[in-house]
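Support request, please re-run this one:
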Amino acid sequence: MKIAVIGTGYVGLVTGTCLAETGNEVACVDIVEEKVNKMRGGEMPIYEPGLDILFLRNIKQERLTFTTNLAEAIAPAKVIFLALPTPPGADGAADLSYVLGAAKDIAKLITEYKVIVTKSTVPVGTADKVTAVMKANTDVPFAVVSNPEFLREGVAVEDFMKPDRVVIGTRDEKARQVMGDLYAPYVRQGNPILYMDERSSELTKYAANSFLATKITFMNEIANMCELVGADVDMVRKGVGADARIGKRFLFPGVGYGGSCFPKDVQALSKAAEENKYEFKILNSVMEVNETQKKRLVVKMREYYGEGGLKGKHLALWGLAFKPETDDIREAPALYIIDELLAAGATVTAYDPEGMPNVKKLLGDKITYATNRYNALDNADALLIVTEWPVFRTPDFDFMKEKLNAAVIFDGRNLYDLDRMKEYGFYYNSIGRKTVSI
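Re-run finished. Output below.
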């Protein structure tokens, strides 16, 4: 099948590459000529494990191409995916200008029936808006389909190639058949394609992300409660997760959620509720708690250092990306923590396997960047762990003690065993567990 993907951000690039992998001919469109030229040359603009192999293979076999010419891409395409940004506006509502602008441009170019698919995360009613824009600019028949993505950064290739489910929102029978044929190779193991109306499909995406954000936030509150009553959140997490009705995933406490999806989608769903004269009290609380949780480690540090505070302290920070196996720093808790530390008069040296270039673009020389995890510890008064990269899980603790000015760790991801920290002689303060004192 011939396909066009408009937008080569995270969702667009994963979608286009994975669709090409099953034999489709995919043309990806972006307005930035320099970016398009780099992708044509095999240069990946994002970090995503495993995507580079598929990316290079399908470019070589000429199933995956890149262009700045919209007309060239959509002319032969049977399906046109819109994978464009929907950033939050000043009021928190999703900005649909990119999506609706592309719909208008496409409408003026099509000469035969096309299936237009919104792949971006969009508010309920967006398919209707896209349809209205298209009808105002063309008499050519078309169908608008909602097909939300459920990709986890770090395992996006697996999520696309072997999805838990595929959600397709359309009331057009021809479009339903086209989309069913397109996704058939990805659900051979028996996972469902769920067909529904467009509005239900759009809301499914927001509901899923908001529920997961709520689950994380609830466990963060339980962790904070554990510290007050002397319980261990790891034990509570295991006990709760053993209940099949709840499940084990998204129960790990930490310093809050970040990334490109959860913060934006929770805010957008809350705003959509407000526009429909409904107060989404749970989501409003989730956002409030998450903002506080991002700074939880700084609160702990202020308590530890007392009256002297953080002024003049030099701190090592492990982890900048919002989660491991990505270079995405959008809404990353590390950024909030760094802002707090710098405002308090501390200095920071950070290390992250993939996120440092993006942070450097944002913060410049406000902090120092280490070449590896151990170099970050030089002359540091304490270590903060903010992202649970695998490389941080089994360090040389004796060497760490030699490098640090003081054997002090504030761990926002609960990477280490409490008894081991005691044996090694660290002051170790984590989330929802007892503090190990030297």
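The first strand starts at residue 2 and ends at 6. The longest helix spans residues 198-229.
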